[in-house]
Amino acid sequence: MFVVLVRGNEAKMIEHIANDVLNKFLSTTSKDFNDFVGIDDHIAKMSVLLHMECEEVRMVGIWGSSGIGKTTIARALFSRLSRHFQSSIFIDRAFISKSMEIYSRGNPDDYNMKLNLQRNFLSEILDKKDIKIDHLGALAERLKYHKVLIIIDDLDDQVVLDTLAGQAQWFGRGSRIIAITKDKHILTAHGINHIYEVKLPSEKLALEILCQSAFGKNTPPHGYMELACEVVERVDSLPLGLNVLGSHLRGEDKEYWLDQLSRLRKGIDGKIHKTLRVSYDGLNNKEDKALFRHIACLFNYAGIIEIKKLLADSDLDVNIGLRNLNDNSLIQIRRQTVVMHSLLQEMGKEVVRSQSNEPGEREFLTDSKDICNVLEEDIGSRNVLGISLNKDEIDEKLHVHNSAFKGMRNLRFLNIYTNQSRTKDRLHLLEGLDYLPPKLRLLSWDRYPMRCMPSKFCPKYLVKLKMQGSKLEKLWEGIGNLTCLDYMDLSESENLKEIPDLSLATNLKTLNLSGCSSLVDLTLSIRNLNKLMTLEMSGCINLKTLPSGINLQSLVSVDLRKCSELNSFPDISTNISDLDLNETAIEEIPSNLHLQNLVSLRMERIKSERLWASVQPLAALMTALTPLLTKLYLSNITSLVELPSSFQNLNKLEQLRITECIYLETLPTGMNIESLDYLDLSGCTRLRSFPEISTNISTIYLNNTGIEEVPSWIENLSKLRFLYMRKCFKLKCVSLNICKIKQLEKADFTVSRIHSNKASWCDSPSAVVMETDNVHVHPTLPAPKEASSSTYVPKLYRKFVNCFILSQEALLQGYKGTDISRFRACAMVELDRRLYPLYPYIVIQICCRFSDRFGNSFQSFGQPHSFTPYHQKGSHLFIFDCRLLLNRDNATPDELNYNQVCIEFRIIEDRSIFILKGCGIRIFEDHCPSPDNQPDNVSSTLGVARWALPHPTKRNVFKDLTLALNGAKQQFLKRRARGE
What we know:
Shape: flat
Structural class: alpha/beta
Distance between the termini: 14 Å
Number of strands: 41
GO biological process, one term: defense response
Mean pLDDT: 76
Keywords: Hydrolase, Leucine-rich repeat, NAD, Repeat
Largest sheet: 17 strands, parallel
Strand content: 15-25%
Organism: Brassica cretica (Mustard)
Radius of gyration: 33 Å
GO molecular function: ADP binding; hydrolase activity
Pfam families: LRR_3, NB-ARC, WHD_ROQ1
């Protein structure tokens, strides 16, 4: 470890390392939570568990009963901490439900569900759309050097925590993962030992919480103190109850308060339900109450649009009802999804249970024991409107009576689901099923055990039919009256051989037949589906043909990937915007093909060798494509030698992937598709020239190509962020003009032999990996978020130790400001070649410590930089930029006197493998005056010191870094000669 020290004894500096780093991290309170009473006390207790000064990855749990304030504490933490991490994410229930909705609801064996959960997670935390991952190790690969803050709220499923934060080593050093749940077992089962139990607030704090909600201040107005204290007592200080009731009483007079207190005194069952029931009873009309019960029993976390469709024939005004429930704090609307707190949901279910002592007489059935009793004994009545049964909660085998639903003629919503797709089903229909109610609007039955539906079932009012993983071979005979049907999902029904005649399903918008591996063809009746928008048939491995000669005007999305027997191009709509034909057996492109609205086309890994055997198919395809196209993915086009010039006409193209085209040699010259942001030509082994196709591109993949040079004009790609050229064995030269691209975050030349030309280094925020014999350009991870470091330095002495050769122009500027101070760092590292294959990465981090003469100090860590050494011999010089935020406005009085700075280089991987032989820094600032204009006494007349350096010129930057390397070598040789 080498240290850059500004005045003072090194041992003393080490002795005074900050022990209150977390307080510095949390010094700025978000205004979003100023009104949350008691938040500082919660934060202080969490700070001990988070232990932010520790560089290990730490997982912390927040545990407590529903409504006690866990989510609010977590959001306050996120607001205060997120800016100190490279990436951060707050995962709520809506995010989890949306990521898992089309799968088996948390089945720990559902690989695709986990993959989708990780995919959505990475898209959010990295702020990138359409991230592609094909294995569960991708999350760790992408985040293992990222310092991240992850908060997962309202956890009730172990699989979510295991999938998103399975192991600490998935994330970079200093990362923090916070899991919030009411089930302590989820935390302990995951090995989380640092758990914060949220307890009820004191009576004083509870009174303040109520007053904030009811009056907008911490104390009640004159004459309300006694009333407010009684409310606190009645709700037993539960924060959710205080907030809900306070919102309900806001703006009301004393008489109204007295009336509500009178109702509370009547002894409504349960401390929690006392408060929540009052808010429910306070709703102005019966329709709002009915909508609340529907949501509590059936539609929590459902989309607004879906709820409207399912209740369209009812007497409920869904729009006004949702607004009223939201205004009364009984639900929240998040991302067009209705969210009801679990306590409120339980209260709603309790309201329904209180309707009758006989479960079969209630309007909704949600308790598994009650449902089992009703279905086995055939005692359901006309009062029952909805059933929601989790089959995983069935203790013993449930033998459903064959006429169990006959008495429930008004049943409109039937949802039977499971989270465990591979466990043996406990629900049995030993005598079959004779009857399903005719008024059903929702029929969702996971793993339906029968080969067909009841013969007399009339789906006249059915809006949503979802039978995932069923044993159905067919639904019914003849033409069903499906005029109300909007959504049909029969996915993973492996025995399904045919779907019913859909001639009357004129309102169907989504048809999902994915994974129906026995399905051979699609009924011609789909020509009547004039409102069909989405057709999902991925994984229908025996599907051979689709109806042709029809044109479904509304159809915009067709997914036929992995239909490995499908050999003809789909001819069912000219208005398709998203078409996926990956891994099909398409043999030809129709010469008259015209897709006027196509936006996205995927045709990769086509099974048929005939498709691309000649140039005609590609020509026909290019003729069919329209300027609306934004995504085009093709592969293995054996006839492609030169990219057609007609690509220039695709002036809205954003993503182009043409991979494994082994005969592709050139791209048209002078082409500039201004909209193109993403280009992938990987596997085009005969491609010799660097593609000049767009000046606005941000991501380029050229892995395993025959490109020989990265040209000097690459500096014109000013928006380039990522360049991948792995296994480019013919690559001879990379222009160092690549460093002029200020947006560049990573350039990867793994297993590529390259030689540097003599271009000058430039001021780029990207890091550069160099070897002393053979230069390799390899920028590192994305630029870090600025660390929070407040420095007001009356007098800063410029004495640097172990920096060897530093530019004499490194002066401190005397003007005030809160801008980012930046410096370029270099470190020379040698590795133990015997152990190198076991440790392919080098991670270097810089720590800056600020101290005063009284021993007060704090420290700020730079973003770790990851490098890959490409050879086992020789020293490696790593050059990278660091940035610090000098935020004087947030400085505490003690911080204003810091006048000593210690800069420390650290190798955070195994230090026995990597040896730090030398290091140096060069401080710079873009807007500094030139050296000639600097006052002689600048270092002794500082009001506010900022590290700064004149903007480096093209001529002197590389020279300075080279001097640093030479100086490091000389110092190392001297120390070795002295036996140090």
